[in-house]
Amino acid sequence: MSYLLGIDIGTSGTKTICIAPDGKILSVASATYPCAAPRPLWSEQNPEDWWNAVVKTVREAVSKAGVPASEVKAIGLSGQMHGSVFFDANDAVIRPAILWNDQRTAKECAEIESAVGGRSNLIQMVANPAMTGFTAPKILWLRNNEPENYEKMKSCLLPKDAIRFWLTGEKATEVSDASGTLLLDVKNRRWSQELLDALHLDSSILPRVYESEDVTGKLTPSAAAELGLTTDCVVVGGAGDCAAGAVGNGIVRTGALSTSLGTSGVAFVHSDTVKIDPLGRAHTFCHAVRGAWHMMGVTLSAAGSLQWFRNALCQEFKAQVESAGGDVYDALTSEASAVPTGSDGLFFLPYLSGERTPHADPDARGCFIGLTLAHGRGHMARAVMEGVCYSLRESIDIFRGLNVPISEIRASGGGAKSAFWRQMQADVFNCKTVTLNSEEGPAYGVALLAAVGAGEYSSVQEACDATITRATELEPRAEVVAQYDARFEVYKKLYRSLKDDFKAISALS
């Protein structure tokens, strides 16, 4: 029998799961590691920490599953996107990896757009505008600020692909993660030689690009020994964490959209054709499904907004609830559910960390608008939840405006555990909202990709059909949808009204 591993190299830690071919999760193991901020706006990690976490979690997951090492036949890799791991001619790491949430590259983003004659030309070339988190501006930052390291640099790999190199000896990536470098011709699923030439970058620094279920190599003898596996185990392309999570949610056909309410919020939709927002408000990337693409919108503070509300304004309430043996989130949700739709005119803009979609604005600020003496804690809690849903609806409306069909929302993340918040999504988005049988996210998605690569299934769609089932379903309520539609029109105006004030506030601080 063949068993499969899914490994997700995240920002705060690595998770490895072991599954049977029928999709049953046999074991889960995780390990954490630190993230460094040596200067303001910087975010870095030591790639060796990722490798140590992979070794630890693979050994633990296989042991807990109780399966023979010889029957672990394939590994799928997922991980934090956009990061840069720089290698020298001897394949040694030159400096700490620069991560997706690093904000040092504003100058380089402007340099990229200038090199190709403007933002619109860049979007036509690689389907996306330049953003500080992407990989290409990090390479230029190295050239501009650490020229000695740039001269040493002979290759640049994404985080999960650095792990792949240490597993297989192969420098490779796959289309979904490569899309987030800003260097991929997303329409044609290959590196953009046109952009590389404009930026004076040699294509030799980039790895070979595969589709996500393709086999990219086998474990080397040394890697197999360290992991306690065999050299018969193959490693497939895998996917960036968002695309991997979408596979784990079965977002592999037209009509399916996933929302994830974690610290940040993500709206992710499958498309069989390339759909590009000419204004660059939403990302268009290659999907982890062969010959398909996806669009994605991100709100930077989703469930993180409710967490902030709890921590900043509800500490006494939290202590009271917990002393009685309760959960503060359940208590806040109960109070929110007692408040009318629309929070009696109270709005919340969830821009606590700036914003990404559709307003790529680091100066945006979170705020309550419409407060009166009649409002209490329950109103504020509900307004936070509604504000997060409105923010995600802005992304969903971009997709709909580009004629991307959406017939079902698949909800995941911490926020999806709340039936109240799921019903709110159904009503705000005017779409059936479901949850699924698996909650292991990207690790589960790439384990399914490994199953396809190992020959257990003929396609990613077949693998998802065989392993993923609905757990709950909630339909939108027509009368509530109408109320939210009216309030959403007001919500959309608020950012435009406050945009200049946000910049003035940022300048003051």
Brief overview, please?
The chain is an alpha/beta fold and 509 residues long. It contains 18 helices and 24 strands.
Structural class: alpha/beta
Q: Could you name the ranges where pLDDT drops below 50 across 5 or more consecutive residues?
A: none
**Main sheet properties:** 7 strands, mixed
Distance between the termini: 60 Å
What portion of the residues fall into strands of 2 or more residues? 15-25%
The portion of residues assigned to helices is: 40-55%
- From the alpha carbons, calculate the radius of gyration and give it in angstroms: 23 Å
Number of helices: 18
Overall shape: it is globular
User: How many E-type strands?
Assistant: 24
**How confident is the prediction overall: mean pLDDT?**
95
